[in-house]
Amino acid sequence: MKTIRHLKTAGAALAVGLLAQTALGGLAQAQDRDALLKEHSGGTMMLGAVSAAGTIDPHVNYTAEFWQVFQILYDGLVKFKQASRAEGYEIVPDLAEAIPEPQDDGKTYVFKLRDGIKFADGTDVTAEDVVASFQRIFKINGPTSGSFYNNIVGADKCLAEAASCTLEGGVVADEEAGTVTFHLVAPDSEFFDKLAVPHAAILPAETAATDAGTSYIPGTGPYMIESYDPNDKMVMKRNPEFSEWSVDAQPQGYPDEIVYRFGMNEESMINAIQNGQLDWMFDPPPADRLNELGTQYADQVHVNPLAAFWYAPMNTNLAPFDNVKVRQAVNYAIDRNALVNIYGGPVLAQPTCQILPPEFPGFEESCLYTKNPGTTWTAPDMEKAKQLVEESGTAGQKVTVVAEDTATSRAVGTYLQSVLAELGYDATMQAISPNIQFTYIQNTDNNVQISVSQWFMDYPQASNFLNVLLSCASFNEGSDASINIAGYCNEEIDARMAEAMQTAVTDPESANKMWAEIDKAFMEQAPVAPLFTPKNVDFTSKRVGNFIFSNQFRWLIDQSWVQ
Question: Which domains does the chain have, with CATH numbers?
Answer without folding.
Answer: 2-56+216-302+537-562 (3.40.190.10), 64-200 (3.40.190.10), 308-536 (3.10.105.10)
